[in-house]
UniProtKB/TrEMBL annotation:
This is N-acetylmuramoyl-L-alanine amidase. It comes from Deinococcus arboris. GO terms for cellular component: outer membrane-bounded periplasmic space. GO terms for biological process: peptidoglycan catabolic process. The lineage of its organism: Bacteria, Thermotogati, Deinococcota, Deinococci, Deinococcales. The keyword Hydrolase applies. Keywords: Hydrolase.
Length: 351
């Protein structure tokens, strides 16, 4: 379940594309499908809806008082996602004028006005976020006289988790100690990426720090896509493992980015990731006063797969004589973590 500007969205995974009949009456939406689903039911706490129930091939959503409209779509499998039943319940005055739409009248294109995806089988009341502390174990990442990347990213991730938990957000950590997920870099990045594809995940944030010449400084946030023409690909290669492994994984990710251009659902996912990246970048710059290196796209292997909004943030340069010492300070890391958590909460529409 997701709350968006003007509507609440519920998404149910289906075993296959299904024919459907839709009825909106007596403050409920009933969708009859020609597939059998696991029986379940429960309350909902979101604008426009109060409960849901699944029995056999029937999905029923109880509408809140004053709500009598809904838009229903059945989307076919695409972009690695299963077929889905999507129910949008208008919550604004303007949106409430949209009539109920039978799924048979919908095209295979994802419904418009989506702000973030939901790749879940049932609604959830607690958003879940994956925090990936970059590197660790046999891969220390960037190392300077002031800091080591694996230590900074873990500390910031743990601090961010603590703040998100205070606001009722479930947090999945890729690591909670100085360890790798696999000694093989490809397998390590695969394992991190897969964390966003299990259960009900609202956002995936991979945390890193940068390294370059002593004059380089600033914060930048990436979402998955082809790098800008003329940009330096060394960062993607470096974060993808470095050396020949990093080159190969970057090449594979680049090919995938090119293939995604024609996939409507994949491009919608990219749009969600861009929104998350923009919020994170804005909050971090405001909190730290660091040089704003902007929101960018690149072919980072770890964020190529997730079916939820996924970003990679570079929190500064370990190699910078000004930023390196700041990144070593617990107080500065706390400022970063607070800003990162606030950006995620903004994106999730959570106070």
């Amino acid at each position: 379940m997701g709350q968006h500007d003007g509507y609440t969205r519920l998404v149910f995974d289906l075993p296959r594309t299904a024919a459907s009949q839709v009825k909106v009456a007596a403050q409920s939406v009933t969708v009859k499908l020609d597939v059998t689903l696991k029986a379940e039911q429960g309350p909902l706490s979101a604008p426009g809806v109060t409960a849901y129930a699944v029995a056999g091939g029937t999905v029923t959503v109880t509408l809140a008082k004053g709500h009598a409209q809904a838009k229903v779509s059945v989307l076919p499998p695409a972009g690695g996602q299963a077929a889905r039943l999507v129910i949008d319940v208008p919550t604004s005055v303007a949106a409430a004028q949209v009539p109920a739409t039978p799924a048979s009248a919908q095209s295979a294109v994802a419904p418009a006005a989506v702000t973030r995806p939901v790749s879940t089988a049932t609604p959830t009341l607690r958003p879940r976020v994956v925090l990936d502390a970059g590197h660790g174990g046999n891969d220390p990442g960037a190392v300077s006289r002031w800091v080591t990347e694996e230590a900074v990213t873990l500390d910031v991730a743990l601090r961010t988790r603590a703040e998100l938990l205070k606001h009722g957000v479930d947090v999945v950590m890729s690591r909670t100690a100085d360890q790798h997920l696999s000694a093989n870099k490809r397998a390590d990045l695969e394992a991190r990426s897969r964390l966003a594809n299990t259960g009900q995940v609202s956002a995936f944030v991979s945390i890193h720090i940068n390294s370059a010449g002593p004059s380089a400084q600033g914060i930048e946030t990436y979402y998955f896509g082809q790098s800008l023409a003329g940009s330096n690909r060394s960062l993607a290669v470096q974060e993808n493992g470095g050396g020949s492994v990093g080159e190969e994984l970057t090449r594979q990710a680049s090919n995938l980015a090119q293939n995604l251009l024609g996939d409507i659902l994949a491009q919608a996912k990219v749009a969600f990731s861009r929104q998350l990246a923009q919020r994170v970048q804005s909050r971090l710059i405001a909190a730290t006063g660091a040089v704003n290196r902007g929101v960018k796209t690149d072919t980072f292997y770890v964020i190529r797969n997730p079916t939820t909004p996924a970003i990679l943030v570079e929190l500064g340069f370990a190699s910078s004589p000004s930023e390196g010492p700041r990144l070593a300070q617990p107080a500065y890391r706390e400022r970063i973590a607070q800003a990162l958590a606030r950006a995620i909460l903004d994106f999730l529409n959570t106070k």
